[in-house]
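Hey, resending since the last one bounced:
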Amino acid sequence: MLDVIREGWDRLIRFFSGGEGVIVGEVQAESSPPGILVEPISITKESEPELQEEPVDLSRWEVTEYTDSPFVKCGRLYIEGDDLVIRSDLDDRGFCIPLVDVVGVLDGEAVPVLLLSNGTQVGVAKRSISGKGVNFWIEPFLYTLPLARVMTVLEGRARKAAVFVGREVVEG
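The structure tokens again:
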């Protein structure tokens, strides 16, 4: 019994050490399959190719100082029913502009901003002077949004957009 185990052990050692092939039934396994490296790979400093680092041209880079944005997110704008709703974290009342009046805002007209609860006018909405934003003047705050974000909400590509207020209002 021990002879059978020893013989099996010896065959196994010869097989893994790259010695002679092992016969299993009628099939003979090769001592080292083609494409498999038997010797260990050693990489030394001398065998590595020299990597030449090319100097980097930093003349086209411009260093700019980081500055905080003058605006802080303070709410959201979304469509609810037939109204464009403005919610503010600074004022818990809720405001709206009827969607039919939003066209006037986009044309640069001053349109009334109404309270959600009773429809009382509490402010006005108008495009910014640059034309790239929409401003909501609701006492005592001036809220603003990029016009592009308002358009994504109106076109249905976004469900809501961030409303911003000047940083000095929040921190000051």
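The longest strand covers residues 71-80.

Sorry for the duplicate.
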